Automatic annotation (TrEMBL):
EC number: 2.8.3.5
Family: Belongs to the 3-oxoacid CoA-transferase subunit A family.
InterPro entries: 3-oxoacid_CoA-transf_A, CoA_trans_fam_I, CoA_transf_BS, NagB/RpiA_transferase-like
Major enzyme class: transferase
Protein name per the record: Putative succinyl-CoA:3-ketoacid coenzyme A transferase subunit A
Keywords tagged on the record: Transferase
Length: 232
């Protein structure tokens, strides 16, 4: 079954085919469960004009914040962007286009994209700037916005364990946007802490089936703490 083996040996191979102007969906929440090495490879490649879909944009000097340093990002579609001074500067200087999206709506946009659903209605954002330019319909006496699904040429994902067929398990909070992003990329690349033989993962524990995954790469991770609070 060698043809089903999705493991690649290098990050360069993992991101093969990435080109300027593409849309990339990135898993993670804050600095938890982010595909940090795949992001670093995008920075190394110098790919530009990118649209990045992610809950947030990392921090200065780490995570997706790395891609801002070389101005590789043209547009961010995010729900929270408050931890990155460079992001703020590029936004205010008109160098970065930003589409702020309510967090639950962003999650559903990815899920719908992965499920082949082109759009959906949600009450979130009605009567706010989020609703500008969007269709509004009334269901059972309540107004709802029409929101379009999101897909991308690439999805970059951080998992805990995977087998060689691309079945993935996430650990704890990494089950945030990673499973959603994994389904919505034309090419989905997963970096993991451990790769096991086929059959070692308990089927009922698998979060992302291998059918969604194109490439798996083994990595080591820094696992930074975004904010540390200690008691004297």
């Amino acid at each position: 079954m060698a043809g089903f083996d999705k493991v690649v040996s290098t990050y360069e191979e993992a991101m093969q085919g990435l080109e300027d102007g593409m849309t990339i969906l990135a898993g993670g929440f804050g600095l938890c469960g982010i595909p940090e090495n795949l992001i670093a490879e995008i920075q190394r490649k110098g790919t530009t004009g990118l649209t990045i879909v992610s809950n947030n944009c990392g921090v200065d000097g780490f995570g997706l914040g790395l891609l801002l340093e070389k101005k590789q990002v043209k547009k961010m579609i995010s729900s929270y962007v408050g931890e990155n001074a460079l992001f703020e500067k590029q936004l205010l200087d008109g160098e970065l286009e930003v589409e702020l999206t309510p967090q639950g709506t962003l999650a559903e946009k990815m899920r719908a994209g992965g499920a082949g659903i082109p759009a959906f209605y949600t009450a979130t954002g009605v009567g706010t700037p989020v609703a500008e330019g969007k269709e509004v319909r009334v269901f059972a006496g309540r107004e709802y916005l029409l929101e379009e699904a999101i897909t991308g040429e690439f999805a970059i994902v951080k998992g805990w364990k995977a087998d060689r067929y691309g079945n993935v398990i996430y650990r704890h909070t990494a089950q945030n946007f990673n499973p959603l992003a994994a389904t919505a990329g034309k090419i989905t690349v997963v970096e993991v802490e451990e790769i096991v033989d086929v059959g070692e993962l308990e089927p009922s524990q698998i979060h992302t089936p291998g059918i969604y995954v194109d490439r798996v790469v083994l990595g080591t991770f820094e696992k930074r703490i975004e904010k540390r609070t200690i008691k004297e």
